[in-house]
Amino acid sequence: MVVPKAKVPDVLQVYHSGCSGGHLGVKRTLLKIRQRFYWVHCRDDVEDWCRKCTSCAAVKGPQIRSRGALKFYNVRAPWERIAIDVAGPFPETESGNKYFMVVMDYFTKWPEVFAILNQEASTVADKLVHEVFCRFGVPLEIPSDQGRNFESQIFQETCRVMGTQKTRTTSYHPQSDGMVERL
């Protein structure tokens, strides 16, 4: 039976919200209506009706995914946990440096930036030991991205000898190490 446009809300009311309807959702409501009725844009009208149904919305709730809880780092002292990253290449300086090594303390948010010739693991480890560890002490933990310079045997061995735990941030997700990435 072809339904005139003026009677479409009545059909939708009976087959979705009425006694025989049961608020069954788009697929089942559409299946029940198509057994007996036809009109142009029937699917669109059923989808719109179900989306605007207050009873369905109250029961089903919002269709958003909840995000995971943020991890809280309980840092008790300065230079207990530091973040590290290498930025560059930049235009070469007079002394031949092309990269910057950024080190930031999680407790005080104090940044230290060092110009370095390259981003090789030996250069980064040497600068870290002689410029950071000698001045501020050895941290308990160093989170960094998964760059080759931080995942190398040289850097891992430096952390092991110094008694520092080296941790990784999430791959291809610079926001997880945002403190040094923003600098």
From TrEMBL:
Its Gene Ontology biological processes? DNA integration
Assigned EC number: 2.7.7.49
Tell me the InterPro entries matching this sequence: Integrase_cat-core, Integrase_H2C2, Retrovirus_Pol_polyprotein, RNaseH-like_sf, RNaseH_sf
Sequence ranges assigned to domain Integrase catalytic in this UniProt record: 74-183
Q: Where are the transmembrane segments?
A: none
Under the heading Pfam families, the entry gives: Integrase_H2C2, rve
Instruction: Say which enzyme class the record assigns.
Output: transferase
The Swiss-Prot or TrEMBL record annotates one GO molecular function as: RNA-directed DNA polymerase activity
Q: Which PANTHER family does this entry report, sorted A to Z?
A: INTEGRASE CATALYTIC DOMAIN-CONTAINING PROTEIN, PROTEIN CBG26694
Protein's name according to its UniProt entry = RNA-directed DNA polymerase
